[in-house]
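Researcher: Before we compare anything, I want clean individual predictions. No alignment, no superposition, just each chain on its own. First chain goes here; please echo the sequence and then give the structure tokens.
Model: Echoing the first chain and its structure:
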Amino acid sequence: MKPGVLLFNLGGPERLSDVKPFLYRLFSDPEIVRVKWTPLRKTLAYAIATFRRKTSEGYYRQIGGGSPLRRLTEEQAGALAEELKRRGSDVQTFVGMCTWHPFLHEAVDNIQRSDVDHLVILPLFPQYSVTTTGSGFAVLRRLLHERLSSKKLHIVWVPSWPHQPTYVQSFAQAIERELRNFADPGKAHILFSAHSIPERYVREGDPYLEQTKKTVELVMDRLGRRNRYELSFQSKIGPVKWLEPFTSDIIAELGKQGVHDVLVVPISFVSEHIETLYELDILFRKIAQDAGVQNFRRVPALNSDPTFIRALAEIVERSLNKSG
């Protein structure tokens, strides 16, 4: 058996000149903009990208001129390969992105050129949503059918892993490290912040909300439930109703209540990108300051944290044992 792992994430613009084409690809996704007629959806995507371009460029300019997501994902892939090698498995890793380089089709081409015969498809979205994992799976199924149907390839799809014990442990450890920076760690309010999705998707059966809630509860179990905590949502786009409460509103309300110590946990994000580096660290930090929150801190995204990489390795090993 020659195993491989395809890690995939959303992707992000690496330069300011990438922002508009990135936005166009993002909003062309039928799971993001639910317009069935493709020409109309692409027209809307172009209009949205044009309208949002300057604002988004301003955000990326404030975090260094581009997203670090590709670099961080490639580092995760390298660390995963090393961890699996240390555990006795020679596994080739591949990286693909839904909306920017290296695109999923580029990853599939690399797989086609390899001698891999068992493939684990592992989304870097712990909690399943049709807007992320579901969208990526749909593209990958089409690509694999078109380009690899003649290749003998056993594929294991990992739809979600919100309960994976070592993943939960990695977040609990990261939270404990940050809590030590507060004068009284037990008084810090832990605010879990997840990417929002339209409420309609949840009503239609998307498990994202329930899986995210479960992850939060498991993390708090690990922490011994010593702190007040709650779950909120960020990154709303468009006029439809999205999951609430919004992280920005909760931060403002905590300030009004006289809460001085707030620790934000990016629970649905495993890598730093625009939502953590700009939205949480810059935009929401300003909201916290204006609201009177004196000590506002954020848990770093997991990135290549050794415990998190061990979690990914365990997921891969379990998947390969099933396929073997």
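Researcher: Okay. Second chain, same rules.
Model: Second chain and its structure:
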Amino acid sequence: MQRILGYMRKAINEFGLIQNGDKVCVGVSGGKDSLVLLVGLHRLRSFIGIDFQVCGVTIDPGFGGRAGDYSAVEEMCDSLGIEYHIIRTQIGEIVFDIRKEPNPCCLCAHLRRGALQDAALQFGCNKLALGHNMDDTVETFFMNLFNEGRIGCFSPVTFLETKDIYMIRPLVLAPEKDVRRAARREGYPVVASLCPADGHTNRQKTKDFITDMQRKDHGFRERIFGAIRRSDLEGWAGSGK
């Protein structure tokens, strides 16, 4: 976990993600990335030299018409003294049963992100932290290139003018393998995804492509990430030093 804290501290300082007085809402899906991010930010508060608060929020999509079981996450947060909230929704029903979306990920992500932003404001937060890691950055770059024919990627920090809130990604410098290793070693209570499309998404196909390229050409993923950092893409310019 120390390595992860190092990546997070570097990202926070390099991109100016968190300042004194901030209250950061962490979007907790229950996956490894969001749990590592939540606990990582909680731990950083004690030594990073920035006075900020952290809370976790889970948007339960209610896949299959059932409430997700996040009791283990609740117990972990209680034991660590982390503020934590669960928001029950019908997003799963809307996406899969009512709309019957052939490509459900885009709408589902849009609805969940909107619900997260509203929850962050409800609980007095001015920052919303998402658990995207380095691998997610490269995958998003290729998804935009292959599917939309454009050069683009999310930024480490984005101001959402309509909601008057900043969206930040403190894990953006951390390789997924290190995040996975930290979650396993720390024994974080990862919640299995109940999404009917899990493992069959466009992102999974892109992940498989990058993994195959990495196998054939060691360092492929890292070179692409380095190019993104040195690019003129919004939020990344001048950071790749």
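Researcher: What stands out in the second chain?
Model: Strands lie at 23-27, 53-60, 83-88, 127-129, 157-160, 165-168. Additionally, The two ends are 24 Å apart (CA to CA).
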